[in-house]
Structure formats: C-alpha cells, structure tokens
C-alpha cells in the first residue's frame, strides 16, 4: 500500500523548483533542467527539490529528507494506465576524478533490445556516505534522465542501488522514483539491511523474502548458477511481488538483470572515454 495515505496517481510528482527549474505557469507543470515535470497540486507539505537534495552534511537534515521520501513512496503497482510497461531503463553511475557519470540505457521490455542511451556528467558536490547515496548521485541521474526526449522516456527505471530495502526505507531507487514519480526498482549484490530465512535460494529463479523491521522489503534471488544471490526491492510505484517478476524477466544468463548490467557497462565506457580525453588535454 501507499505510505501515509499518499495518493500516488499517475503523473503526480514532487513540486520542484531547483537546479535551473522554472515554473511553467499555474497549471501544475514546471520545467526541470529542460524536462517538464508535473507537480502535486495543493501539496504544501512536500518540500521543494533543493530541500530534497541538500548540500549540508548534517545527519539530522538528511534523515529528515529520507523520512519525507519514505512517507511518499508507493508500494503498489502504478504503471502507465494505457501502455503498462513497454520500455524499461537501467541506470548506473561511474566516478572519475571529481565527476559523477550517470548512464541510462532504455530497452524494449518484451525483447530487451536497446532503444536509447544517454548520460550526464556532473561535478561531485556530496561525499560518499553509506545509506545516503541519493544525495551524492541523484542530481546526475536527474540530469541524464532529463536528456531523454519526452516521448522516449521509459515506463520504469531499474537502479543498481537500494529501494525500500534501506534503514529508512528510502534508498536511491525510492528517492529518485518519488522525485520523478515514476516506477522504480533497486537491484544490488548485497544486503544493506534485513534478513531472510535460510538456506539461501539454491536454484536459478528461486527466492526468499527479505524482511526488515517486520516488513517485507524485497527478495533474495538466485539469478545465476555459481553466483551469490542478488537483492531485489521495489523503489516507488511497484509492489514487492511485481518487482521480482520484472527482474526475473530481465535475466539473460548473467548475475545482473539486463537493464542494470548494460547501464553499468555503458557508464564505465563513458568513464574511460572521459578519462582519456582529460588525459590528452593535460599533456
């Protein structure tokens, strides 16, 4: 269900005015880095985007933001009412010098054939702090997403980061999902928080529920023979059960599902290219 009675209707999103955003009038729409985002009408309780990506390193302030994100996360399936899931995109970050590279690869959901790829490179202005990765990587992700033409934006984003399987139920996949109000899933290689009933899943496709604070927050999934299980969790507008079915569909013989596997390869390819270009300039 949706936390705190938040009505997660398709098209609603956080009212954001930061990072070059400008209002597009009083019709409930605004422009975010060249990307039109729908706002939540008459929702004075939702902070503006600057407050959801604070520069401060004050732990109390960051915890407040994560509580806000968690309270507006939706744990029900809320996909495009007309098309459902026709496209899915993987999102992954790479790091070089003081830069964050966010790579996005959009795939046809049925065939997993590539349809579009794009990336953004942003200056890192927040340190690496475990459980607060959204504050470090989020703006680069938003920037990359904004480069996708409106008619080519995916129906769902899959991240190589946590979703609600997070100490405050506000992992990066949830944070970005709430901000953009799009369905998101998080897939990781290890458990950040929570436990599952042993033994671990032994056969490919087998899974165990991941439980944290008496709440089912995801799955421990055996994705490939000879590899440790991966962790699957919903981020926003996806249920726990649907999240694992989507990830199972995206497995193609590798440990990681195709969206995040391909996005990881892409982001690191951009990293190598960026590093080579800067090395040449410095010579």
TrEMBL record:
GO biological process terms on file: DNA repair
Compartments in which it is found: Cytoplasm
GO annotations of cellular component type: cytoplasm
Positions bearing the site annotation: Interaction with target DNA: 128
Broad class of enzyme this protein falls into: hydrolase
GO molecular function, one term: single-stranded RNA binding
EC id: 3.1.21.7
Reaction it catalyzes: Endonucleolytic cleavage at apurinic or apyrimidinic sites to products with a 5'-phosphate
Pfam families for the chain: Endonuclease_5 (PF04493)
InterPro entries: Endonuclease-V
Protein biosynthesis in keyword set: no
The protein's role, per its UniProt record: DNA repair enzyme involved in the repair of deaminated bases. Selectively cleaves double-stranded DNA at the second phosphodiester bond 3' to a deoxyinosine leaving behind the intact lesion on the nicked DNA.
HAMAP family: Endonuclease_5 (MF_00801)
PANTHER family reported for this sequence: ENDONUCLEASE V
UniProt protein name: Endonuclease V
Upper classification of the organism: Archaea, Methanobacteriati, Methanobacteriota, Stenosarchaea group, Methanomicrobia
